[in-house]
Amino acid sequence: MSTTDWILIVYAGVTMAALLMLWGNLLVNLFIFRRPPVVSASVLGSPAPLVSVCVPARNEALRIGNLLRSLAAQDYPDFEVIILNDRSEDDTTAVLQAWQNDIPRMRVMAGESLPRGWVGKCWACHQLSREARGHYILFTDADTILHPQCLSSAVQFAQAHDAALTSLWPRQVAGTWSEKLIIPFVYQLLLVFLPHALVNRISHAGLGAANGQFVLFRRSDYDALGGHEAVRNHLVEDVALARATLAAGRKLLNVDGTELVSCRMYHRFADLWEGFTKNLRAAFEKNAGAFVFFGVLQATVLLGAFYLVPILLIIKGGEWLLTLPGILLLAQIALIWLMRVVFAVRFKQSVLWAFAHPIGQTLALVIALNSWVQTATGGVKWKGRIYKPEV
Q1: Name one Pfam family in it (predicted).
Q2: What is residue 383's predicted lDDT score, i.e. its pLDDT?
């Protein structure tokens, strides 16, 4: 047996063992990452706690109307809507004015100038929090759409579990080819790599995660953590807030919001590229080693087999598939495709596009590399501003 054959056996064996460990974590997470029951406001008792729905909006004329329509349809009896118009240069102002009379307790604020040392979204959310009067504060994005019973269900779930921070992970709507390739990797990062079973048991800040599209804070906990001011220079503020919540020993809940809220983050490849470039390196903050580790792990365990099999078929011929490394690599491809099909079915994504995994995984790693390069050099661009993350 040649040296190459031994290297292939070791590689295939190690990556298969790693893939099986990831599958084990995924299976546990699929049970833990539950869906809140869809309930009406009647189960909350009387009076229901006031909820402040806070929405930062910068150039969101094409999207925010759908959110406002869904807020107007909420069955929750006691909530206010506060929108910060962050110096929008499109028709956002006109859209907000058109909806002013349809949501009785809706207020629109004009955004103040961005202070030095603040990220735009953190500054917007901080301004919103100063105006919020609710027992709960919901920070949500302008491109989300809420099911009519979303507020009722989320508040009931948060109360039932005594959670400081409850984050619903919306159904991610994908329209273009780039969205269908990349957006499902949100679920891969969430359920394959994060051990949800440990999150509130060991309160390690490194296990913190949340989705800024729907972050519901109990107001007392939000204030105790220092709110968005405490994470004012973090580009990925939702993850930073989740980590702060765990570090303070408070309860964090990440739950499947597929039935309660949806979101289409991007509509063009350029926006998707810019958005993930902003987030991927910054999410690891100063832990560059973890960023490299997860990149290498994905390249070797979740992608390598897709490249090795056709290359080795050309070099060694079809009989190679019947050898031990050939069988192991083919089994890995099958398990990875099955993993993607599980995501597609569970989170209402395209099953067909799940089989484009190697293309999507390759593109995701290219974006991650670009995120690292941009972060380390001139900074990343977002919403017309340039940020230099502290990494």
Answers
A1: Glycos_transf_2
A2: 67
